[in-house]
Amino acid sequence: MDSLNPESPPVSITPAQHQPRILGFWWTTLWGVVLFAAMFVGQIAVVVFFVLARGDGLDLGEAIRVVAGSGLAIALSVICGLPTTLVALWLAIRMTRTPFADYLALRWPSWKDFLIGAGGLIVLVMGWDLMSRALGRETAPDFMNDVLNSARRDGSVWMLVPAIGLAAPLSEELMARGFLYRGWSETFLGVPGAIVLSSMVWTGLHLQYDWYFFGEVFCLGLWFGYLRYRSRSLWLTIVLHGLNNLGALVETLVIAGQSQS
After folding, report:
1. Is the overall model pTM greater than 0.85, yes or no?
2. Which sequence spans correspond to the domains of the chain?
3. Of 220, 180, 186, nearest to 203 (Cα)?
4. Angle at CA 152, nearest 5°, toward 208 and 159?
5. Nearest CA to 250 among 149, 87, 140, 151?
6. DSSP alpha helices (H): ranges in the chain?
């Protein structure tokens, strides 16, 4: 008779097929490949458009090489990789019956976590810059210099800000520290394994760099992974990733200005 008592309502049991779930290791890995492909399709579509728009008789390989050296094309390709990544993420997370924001930990961090994250990021970046100078290496990757120079030639430096400071951090963090970390951290890998593996995947997205800057990117990935675990907030790593990218862009601009003076 408890079911008729308003003070003791019956316990409702959610059917198993309707309960939110987390994708396992292999499903997370498979969808990670799909996410990468979606990002690539969005980016390459811009390159294809620019190649077709040229129509100057260049062979395809030469046309792609020329377009890839365009700051405007590079900026637009990074921006256009974001919506395709979001669509693929939505499809994957929809299968889990978990709210999109919950699955990806899209919640704001505390000020304490932000300050800790920003402080650690500054120490890491300064440490790598000091090591670069000690080894006689450039502090900015050649790729950044090439992109900046090409953007100056076609007057699209301003486009690098939303591309590098917003679109790239969103796409990469949603995939690496959002989707991949969430799925892998609840498997046999655990949190440490998920941090390392997602950092390796994120590093692999930066094939434009050499082995030295691979090391820097991987270390940053480990730090972002720890912050994702500590704060349970993906917005924290997105914001710090964006600030790091903008800082690298400003540093490249300053170094370029000094070399021309």
Report:
1. yes
2. 2-260
3. 220
4. 75
5. 140
6. 25-54, 60-68, 71-94, 100-103, 111-134, 142-153, 160-162, 168-173, 181-185, 190-204, 211-231, 234-260
Give the tens place of pLDDT for each residue, 47-85.
788 777 766 655 556 555 666 667 788 889 899 999 999
Residue count (the chain): 261
Rounded distance between C-alpha atoms, residue 242 and residue 197, angstroms: 21
Buried b (16+ CB within 10 A) or exposed e, 147-160: bbebbeeeebbebb
- Is the Cβ–Cβ distance between 89 and 234 less than 8 Å? no
Residue type, 56: D
Which tokens hold the place of 249? Answer: 């862009």
